[in-house]
Design goal:
single chain; mainly alpha; 3-stranded antiparallel beta sheet; about 60% helix; globular
């Protein structure tokens, strides 16, 4: 029996590219924000309206992480007060192709997942 990568003595989770990327894009808000920016660049308030359950703090933090990871760009306009616009970066656009497959899968199978949850919850309660 072979050991998994995480059991290997030289394994460093912080250097694992899959874990590193999924930790950044697999949170609750990232995909929703990226999908909001697909069609057109948007200001902070427009993104918040498109993702209404997100707090201002979490939106700000997620936008910073997306910018840090090269998924989006942030452009500041010299107006009074300054205005900021977020847009998809080429790296974010490249992520959308595999993510669109995940979104389609979720849409196609959501009813099956909900039915499985209901069956599980009923069996667990009984």
């Amino acid at each position: 029996m072979s050991a998994t990568a995480s059991q290997h003595p030289d394994f460093d989770a912080s250097r694992c590219p899959v874990r590193d990327v999924l930790d950044q894009i697999g949170d609750k808000w990232t995909l929703l924000i990226l999908l909001t920016l697909v069609a057109t660049p948007a200001r902070f308030s427009a993104i918040q309206r498109a993702v209404p359950d997100i707090s201002k703090r979490m939106l700000s933090q997620t936008l910073r992480n997306l910018e840090r990871n090269g998924m989006i760009t942030r452009q500041v306009f010299a107006t009074k007060p300054p205005s900021v616009q977020y847009a998809m970066a080429p790296l974010g656009e490249a992520l959308l192709e595999p993510m669109s497959q995940l979104v389609k899968w979720a849409e196609d199978h959501h009813r099956h997942i909900r039915a499985a949850r209901e069956r599980f919850d009923q069996a667990d309660a009984g």
